[in-house]
Amino acid sequence: MGEKHIDELSGVETTGHEWDGITELNNPMPRWWLWTFYATIVWALAYTIAYPAWPLISSATTGVLGYSSRADVTNELAAAEAAKSTYVEAVKAKSVGEILADENLRQFATAAGSAAFKVNCIQCHGSGAQGSPGFPNLNDDEWLWGGNIEQIYTTIAHGVRFDGDEATHVSEMPAFAEILEPQQVNEVAAYVASLSGQADTPELVPAGAKVFADNCAACHGDNAKGNKEMGAPDLTDAIALYASGQTAIAQQVRHPKHGAMPAWGDRLGDVKVKELAIFVHSLGGGE
Amino acid sequence: MLDDREVERLEVEAVNSARTRQPLYTARQKVFPKRASGRFRQFKWLIMLITLGIYYLTPWLRWDRGPYAPDQAVLLDIANRRFYFFAIEIWPQEFFYVAGLLVMAGIGLFLVTSTVGRAWCGYTCPQTVWVDLFLVVERGIEGDRNARIKLDGAPWSFDKLWKRTAKHAIWLVIAVATGGAWIFYFADAPALLGAFVTGQAAPVAYITVAILTATTYAFGGLMREQVCTYMCPWPRIQAAMLDENSLTVTYNDWRGEPRSRHAKKAAAEGLSVGDCVDCNACVAVCPMGIDIRDGQQLECITCALCIDACDSVMDKIGKERGLISYATLADYQSNMAVATDPVTTAIDPKRVRDDKGKLNAAIAHFRLGRIFRPRTFVYAGAWSLIGFALLFALLSRDRLEVNVLHDRNPQLVRLSDGSIRNGYTVKLLNMVPEPRNFELSIEGLPGAAMSVVGMDLPESRSITVEAEPDKLKTIRVYVRQPRENLADGQSFKFIVVDKAGSETDSYVAKFNVPEAGR
Fold first, then answer.
1. More confident residue, A10 or B91
2. What is the per-residue pLDDT across B459-502, written as a single tens digit (0 to 9) for each?
3. Which residues 94-133 of A are in CB contact (within 8 Å) with B?
4. Is residue A55 part of a domain?
5. Residue B178: half-sphere exposure toward Cβ, Cα within 13 Å
6. Does A189 reside within a domain?
7. I need a labelling partner for B472 at 20 to 30 A (CA). Which of A40, A55, A166, B192 fits?
8. Contact B490, B511 (CB under 8 A)
9. Domain tally for chain B?
10. A200 touches chain B (CB under 8 A)
11. Which residues, listed in sequence order, are joined to residue B247 by a DSSP beta bridge?
């Protein structure tokens, strides 16, 4: 280097670099570009002072403006809570029946209940509330513990066969394998299956009817229509909680399965339970 | 033969002239267009009046649509996703009408360009119209071309200061009004104006006005012809759109050359000269700062002001108008063939005019028939076809629509009596600004009946739904079919009828049942 190379055509100094006869002009940076570059440096330094930036051993500088994205989220959540507080207060103050009668409130509660359902209920009842064997379908019009809005509310609040809640629904069907003779079990299974038109051995039905009257009618009723007070299902309809058919019924008579549901009242609070009740009631089977 | 009256010669050089051509990165050469007057200038004033009138006044036109819709004739209601154009109301899913209009605008541009060249650029392009408007202001304050050149070169003085301040101030007012008019298309104009001046309008309104003010001021006042030459893609595309039968502003050198500043002297010496007296009037009036005598150029927006300027000179020296005229390349070439000496290949004025100064009978400046040709008919045909198709679609379109979504989960529900229930979300589109009662019924699906969530009604095959004006009504419908009627693969129709009118729409839906054997 040392000596200056000047490009003849433009009169501009070159860097001295040359490729195949093409030399690189040493034009200075445009001023606007240079000042923008300096400005970004100043901006960056100021930013790291104003906002959280420099990592320390166990935390980071907080910045003189005290900004925190976590606080931002908290504020936004608080704002969202405040925005719906009128509805929430109304839900808190009113009974489920009153909420159901109020169009706006019902829509709010249905939407809120739908969200709560997706978090807390779909694990057993399914994302469409369609249930599965042993877990009731909430869309249909068969209710073990009653399908009007108050009954749904009570069931959700206190659960079914849930140890931690004194007001929980409790009922237990005895294991008839230890009470009835095997033949009697077959007879009563044939009778119960015949109620929904699916008996495999119709000749056993008359005998089964007698077994039923002696052993089952106390809970399931003389006409086998069930009893919602004690969660005894209606045995005459087309819906079966576990499985339908005479064999499955015989199995259930011998060693009954019993579903359980937690009490949600203490876990979610009264407002959420009301919203859930309104949502479940809206699924098509609400009475 | 030649008129003795002197024609003033103007000192002006085209900004892109080959003689003084500069590298691309040189600073802009200022253009000081001289005031022109004549037929085309008159026409352009009229076009300016109409286009600016449309732009500024349209948002203030009212159109009564009843109590449930805005009364602004043209309104792009983005917040509510409605577009109102006089009697037409467009919903977002009907926006293809606007797409159709854009296609028509494209083909229309082809049609116009292939027949009358860059008429869009020269007469109606907003850039041209606003530059014209800004030039009127400039000329009113600073004077015509010579005065402006003098002022521009003068040192700063009180006179220059106030003139420049006044000019830029008025430009800014026009720019603000331009940006201001734009936002009125998107909201109720009187209400928005009130909110705007009292500082109550939405930030986006102020931002939009600020951006459009800046662009109008910069494009119309400061950049002017550079927008057309350097920024606009259309001058580059239009080369592909023009052919030898398209009209362009043409310097008819077959009658102008050889040009002479001293025609009288030349005639006395027995030299044969053309009509062009080289007065530069055409260059001086050009808003693009070019010399049309150099031939058709990318910069030329065909504003035709040089025609006006030249015509007035031709009137003065007693020649026919049209030394610079609208002409097609084909006209030009056939005239050129007449004018050119086959031996010397130079233009010979004696071949153009006889001894009495009368033009050769084989010469015609412009033949109208040339612009009617298959190409223009195809464009016109395609343009009209799309136009009629859109019009037909618009006149026969539905103002009532029903859409149905089958529940995905659960697909079906078995009820205690063995019947099967399917759930549907039914969307009723009431696309007129008045409330209507619709009758929703089902056709097919024996034995089935429906119920609506939230409506305490007995199950029925037909229900009445109240729809709010200009709104989408969504209802959840359960359809239940008794056990004895169940069958695989059934479909049925949701039919919706306007109870007060005759409008109707339907939707074919599926009814799902459990698989056989379950």
1. B91
2. 999 999 999 999 999 999 999 999 999 999 899 999 999 998 88
3. 103, 106, 126-130
4. no
5. 26
6. yes
7. B192
8. yes
9. 3
10. no
11. B328
Q: Are residues A277 and A139 in the same domain?
A: yes
* Residues B145 and B208 placed together within one structural domain of the fold: yes
Q: Are B141 and B269 contained in the same domain?
A: no
Q: Does residue A150 share a domain with residue A72?
A: yes
Nearest-5° Cα angle at B149, B146 to B154: 125
Do B153 and B281 fall into the same domain?
no
Instruction: Annotate B20-57 with DSSP letters as a single string.
Output: G---TTSPPPP--PPP--SHHHHHHHHHHHHHHHHHHH
Binding residue per annotation — A219? yes
C-alpha span between A6 and A15 (Å, rounded): 9
Domain ends where: B237, B271, B286? B237
Instruction: For residue range A185-208, list pLDDT tens digits in order.
Output: 999 999 999 998 888 889 999 999
pLDDT for position B5: 53
CA angle B31, B174, B201 (to 5 degrees): 145
Q: What is the pLDDT of residue B23?
A: 66
Q: Do the annotations mark residue A5 as ligand-binding? A: no
Mark whether A183 and A141 lie in a shared domain: no
Partner-chain contact B454 A106, CB within 8 Å: yes
**A56: in domain:** no
Is residue B339 domain-shared with residue B447, that is, in the same domain? no
Q: Please give, rounded to a whole number of angstroms, the shortest distance from the CA of B409 to a CA of chain A.
A: 5
Interface with chain A: mutation pick from B25, B408, B415, highest number of A CBs within 10 Å: B415
Q: Is residue B14 in some structural domain? A: no
Interface residues on B facing A, Cβ-Cβ cutoff 8 A = 407-410, 413-418, 421, 423, 453-454, 478, 483
Cα gap B379→B386, rounded to integer Å: 11
Domain boundaries, position A218: 173-257
B517 pLDDT band (50/70/90 cuts)? very low
Residue B337, domain extent: 243-366
Residue B347 sits in the same domain as residue B495: no
Question: Do B321 and B432 have their domain in common?
Answer: no
Contact yes or no for A139 and B410 at CB 8 A: yes
Integer Cα distance of B225 and B132 in angstroms:
11
**Domain match, A271 and A250 both:** no
Q: Does A286 reach chain B within 8 Å, measured CB to CB?
A: no
ipTM score of complex = 0.79
Q: What is the pLDDT of residues B106-160, one digit of tens each?
A: 999 999 999 998 999 999 999 999 999 999 999 999 999 999 999 999 999 999 9
- B297 by DSSP, 3-state: which? coil
Q: Which of the residues A140, A236, A241, A244 would you substitute to probe the B interface, choosing the one with the greatest number of B C-beta atoms within 10 Å?
A: A140
Residue B104 distance to chain A (closest CA, Å): 44
In this structure, the answer to whether residues A186 and A205 fall within a common structural domain is yes
Q: Is A29 annotated as a binding residue?
A: no
Residues in chain A with CB shorter than 8 Å from the CB of B418 are: 237-238
